[in-house]
Amino acid sequence: MFKKSKIPSSVKHIIKTLKSNGYKAYLVGGAVRDLLLKNKPNEWDITTDALPKDVSMLFDKVVPTGIKYGTVTVIIKRETFEVTTFRKDEKYVDGRHPSNVKFTQELKEDLSRRDFTINAMAYDPLDNELVDIFGGQKDLKHKIIKAVGDPVERFSEDGLRPVRACRFAASLDFKIENKTFAAISKTLKIVKKVAAERVCDEIKKLLKAKKPSIGIENMRNSGILELFIPELAKSVGVKQPEPYHKYDVYWHSLYSCDAVPKENLIVRLAALLHDIAKPECKDGEKFYNHDQVGSDVAIHILRRLKFSNEIIDSVANLVENHMFNYESSWKDSAVRRFIRRVGRENLPDLFVLRLADCSAMGRKIDNGYLKKLQKRIDKIIKDENALHVTDLKINGEDVMRKLKIKPGPNVGKVLNDILERVIEDPSLNDKKILLDMVCSHES
Which residue intervals define the domain CCA-adding enzyme C-terminal in the entry (predicted)? Predict the structure, then answer.
């Protein structure tokens, strides 16, 4: 059934310690699911009939991370393991958490409060005992996401569960069972209560799936997408001109996202949102300035979802610059300006986005020009051309001394004006020449 060697010795130690002191203890939830799927678990959660105070007495390092809900974190060799007492949840009042929990001695009662059958299994690695009351193994075999008990009741308790259902469908490439899926649209008012930060976490996990499009389409069909990214929902059916595009804006965006390597969150987000402004920028068969407008829309969406400023800035930059049209006739100065505008550090991601964009058009696109552009970029970087004011042979102090001015925006303006001339002609990046240019700038 399981390869016990895949279970960390620390997990076995925790379970053995609890059992040897007269308590029941099991590995539970996602770890059991992943082991049955022969995947590597991301976390190892343990459930027990021992009360938190009892668990705390048995181990050297224990942190009361969720003591209200019966959870403590046991630390062994700098690794953390959540240990939670068997419990029954009482009435949910905020769409996420029970107003109170009642500890129990029965594992079945604990498993019955969990979200999906595939997450409601428990395993004792010492006795090789699998507890599967709700048919989780069967649903794993048939690749089904199914709620434990009444799905409307489960989703009414916790509004994040419907979002998780869509995420699991993508991550595992499973189908959401019909009654479970139907319950999502009936409980959207609860989903709407979920904090943006939690939705953000689920979207990040969803975007690590091989095909995020599976989860996003489930979100759209269930009504979740309209709650959190209505701008993307509006792109459904927005046609794009032949012969370049086979798909509407929505499906092109999803397929672009799928085409980006799953470990690259920034580019997956950019691919999903790169054409987000096309519906509002559509004029006949053209989408004027959709890249510039789209950058602002992407910022608005990602801020609403509480993504970090670093992620927002990176995604916005990629969306803004994804429509670059390189031609061999570009002068070297044009390539230098392109590098400066995008940012040298963002170029690899921009190229990944362009490749994903092209692959999702449904038509064969020649991408040979990207290799030619990359070759020219590499040469410019190798030649150490000045691309930023910090690359100039003079600095702000030189400008202030030469012009006899105090620190302020004028110093930056002078340096940027000079940089533009150096980008056009790199041979000008000589201290004497630049100081002469500072003097001429004064006049």
Answer: 300-438
